[in-house]
Amino acid sequence: MIDTDWAFHRYESVRAVLPEAEFAQQSRAGHSLADTVEDFDAYILDAFGVLNRGETAIAGAVERMADLRAAGKRLVVLTNAASYTRQAVLAKYHRLGFDFSASEVVSSRDVAFAALPQLAGGKVWAAAAAEGDDFNDADDAARIEHLAEHPELLHSAGGFLLLSSARWSQSDTEALTQALLARPRPLVVANPDLVAPREEGLSFEPGLVAHDVTERTGQKAAFFGKPFGNAFDTALARLKDVPRPRIAMVGDTLHTDVLGGASAGIGTILITDHGLFRGHDVAPYISLSGIQPDWIVATT
Description:
With 300 residues, the chain is an alpha/beta fold.
């Protein structure tokens, strides 16, 4: 069963693969991001658990973004939702009422796709992807096909690309494991999340598949997205005129958002009421992991 305790301990079990970071000695507490505005000039925002839960905007989040803009704060969304093109992500946010521009959105999909031509070796990538994804935002040099529609790619593909778990099952994990044991090939993970908060609960995500496979095969994966530096480098490039201590990563998880932000040398804010820790006292998880955010607030 995927729940908060299970997800937390699974994140802890892969801690050696995650970036290292130094954390605050203690956290300041507040109700919302409004309480943090004296400390920061810019916010890098997670999506799930901060702006939305599944396909639903978090109550008050649209208004909070407007308030932050009115206060002169800079905003960048950094999402691990690799199922969507950047245009589709932007359309989703606009549908939910947010006014982010294309330059304010960084997707782990974009970060991964930028690396694919160097990793491809001229062969086809077999992708775990959402139905209907046409990969039209990938570099022309990156040839990508759906693994779900072409299972023979388990044997012939030059590498594997994990974008979405929407059409993935345990039997797919087993098949990929056996394929890599038979012939090791690159494994690129464009969504390092283990779980994501949705309306009905926590869903399993590509990062979970990747760690299950790599632990069974001994093969390393290339991760793109939070908490890894490649995603933060891309997001911080949008804020290069803002001193890093005046930038905060806002998220709902300790092991992706807070750890990643701290590793990047920026401030960190954990939101507790809408994502992974909804309905839980976060203090024991912070104590067990040692991942201490600069701020803990209830809501966006």
